[in-house]
Amino acid sequence: MKHLDINKIKSAIENTIIISTCVVLAFALLSMSIxxxxxxxxxxxxxxxxxxxILSVYRSxxxxxxxxxxxxxxxxxxxxxxEISRNNLFPQFLYQIKNxxxxxxxxxxxxxxxxxxxxxxxxxxxxxxxxxxxxLNRALNxxxxxxxxxxxxxxxxxxxxNSLKNINRDLYECPTCQATDLLASNxxxxxxxxxxxxxxxxAGVKTAxxxxxxxxxxxxxxxxxxxxxxxRNRIKFIFNKYIANPLNFITSHLKQGLTLDHxxxxxxxxxxLIDQIEQWKKQLETLHEKEKEAEIGRMxxxxxxxxxxxxxxxxxxxxxxxxxxxxKRTIIKNAVDTLKDLANNxxxxxxxxxxRAGIYVExxxxxALLLERIISEKRVQIAKNISLSLEIKDAHSLFAKxxxxxxxxxxxxxxxxxxxxxxxxxxxxxxxxxxTVNVTLSESTTHQIQIxxxxxxxxxxxxxxxxxxxxxxxxxxEDGHGIGLSSSKKMIESFxxxxxxxxxxxxxxxxxxxxxxxxxxSWFPLKISLPKNAEVIIxxxxxxxxxxxxxxxxxxxxxxxxxxxxxxxxxEPLMQxxxxxxxxxxxxxxxxxLMNKNITGIxxxxxxxxxxxxxxxxxRYENVKVREEASTLGIxxxxxxxxxxxxxxxxxxxxxxxxxIDDDEAxxxxxxxxxxxxxxxxxxxxxxxxxxxxxxxxxKDTPIYxxxxxxxxxxxxxxxxxxxDQGFSELYLATxxxxxxxxxxxxxxxxxxxxPPF
Length: 758
Description:
By secondary structure, the chain is of the alpha/beta class. It folds into four domains: 47-205, Beta-Lactamase (2-Layer Sandwich), CATH 3.30.450; 360-516, Histidine kinase-like ATPase, C-terminal domain (Heat Shock Protein 90); 527-648, Rossmann fold (3-Layer(aba) Sandwich), CATH 3.40.50.2300; 656-752, Rossmann fold (3-Layer(aba) Sandwich), CATH 3.40.50. The protein contains 18 helices and 29 strands. Strands 1, 2, 3, 4, 5, 8 and 9 form a seven-stranded antiparallel β-sheet that branches. Strands 12-14-15-17-16 form a five-stranded mixed β-sheet, with helices on one face. Strands 20-19-21-22-23 form a five-stranded parallel β-sheet, with helices on both faces. A hairpin with a 2-residue loop joins β8 (187-188) and β9 (191-196). α1 (6-70) packs antiparallel against α5 (212-255), α8 (367-379) runs parallel beside α9 and α9 packs antiparallel against α11 (483-494). The chain is flat.
């Protein structure tokens, strides 16, 4: 068996690293080249699509203008007249022709079938198209009409290119781009093209130069090269340090017959083992400490177990007190939840000290609501000569990514510190002293959540403030432990925030907390958006909530919004209430806890199928089960105390749909053009039967304009009566006759002219 020395192994490893690096680099370059090629292909395809779109717009506009002229009475009379009559009609005919606002057309001629030219104007160019003029009953009809005349249009390439450029300013001449025939087509709108000559251009569409692709490629390439060389050097370093050098050292000593001195640690492996033994000793000591902590933890677990039993009993009794009004139930429930949180926190602390190991779970929480709850609980505990206030400055919707249990404990401890400082002042000045603790919530100038706790207590001397923040020192406390404020500071910093303390002796202390603003929780609605013609249903057993919503909607809703608000105090009347409109226009504001009822607000929302449009308005927003159940169904949760502050908006109306039924295609095209400029979607039909096929796609309140004389031997007013009987209400007669021409027709809302009324 052949043996290799360590140097050959080192050389083999280095060669392998170099070859692997080259292969990976080659693969990376190939991938980059393929990616760049695909980008270029996509750009070329996108350019071609843009040019096709420009040509489509130009042809559409041109065909519409030609159709309007060719459908005019003067144009048709001129074609069907003899030479003398044509001479009489010529001024009006010429005026009609000049209405064509098409600079790209520099000349035209009209020939009869016998090649007689009856009209010519402008100059002739090599680039032209010849259109068949086919009429049936004086109306253009390329399918069944009689084609006695042709209309030849001559184009100037430069003017034609400028017309296309007016459609899209980014168009430019590009000799290397793909060739495009501007006049290549078999039809032009409603016209058959009998003959055309090719007009070839090479054009492109300007696009913004984007160097980001190469920037990222270069950045990735440099980073990749650096990473490869770092890995190579790191492998060599580790191999030499932990394998090659120690083995060479041992081999050289053994070959020379030298004794290995264990005491002097000449062999690196021995020193490493000794270091490991020292570390194991330290770990063993740590293990003994953990065993002590585990014993303390077992004791704390027993205490928590003893606390939980009466808490569970109180919680069950509270849930059964359905006849107690919700505000009182909420106070009891919050107090029980707080005790549970404290018990759970003691249990977690006994198991593991480090917050990042799993004691706390951070969620996006509404800071204003957490502060309101803490302040409410504190107010019932303080003396009468101490005032505790909370001011929220346009910050109700601010969220922070925090653990709500830890956060509430931090704020509670800081308020307790402020109250203790005030008590010291009361001991000195007596009961006449009026203590104040003001808590404010706002958004700082640096766009952070800012909480200030300001008291007029005894204050802290400057030489003691830093010691207190570091922990272990407390000034003025009987127990001598000052870890409360320092622990609060560490907890706030673990949330990514900061704590600042400013204090003056005998004047008071200001504690300022700043936290990063987090995106709102997924269960929280940022605003209430209502479309017009919506119905809002409010279900709550508390009259005060109904009064609050009435006050909110009164300042927002207007008669033209056509939004109705329905109030329900129990689920049964709501279940019997007819919901005769689309679900998407019904919006619910539903309470979760319903007094003396066996169902919850979520049950009501599910039965009414309002999961997408209803909001759960409840004081139980902190309950994890309520959040999870609502989130699973896609239901948003609005805390009741936030109801006075949530934004309510009325959505603007969508683009109006209009139907126009007329057998004159030129007129229907005109209505469509007018609709585009008036933000209205006009659906045109040349036959009543065509509309009947599509009738199911239109709402009953869609405005429908009908010509009196339709092409299918049916009167427009009679067809309107059929639509009226089917439930359509917005029916108009679009006719050239005066209203006196018709008998009373109650199903017709109004008689209008042929021009688009919008």
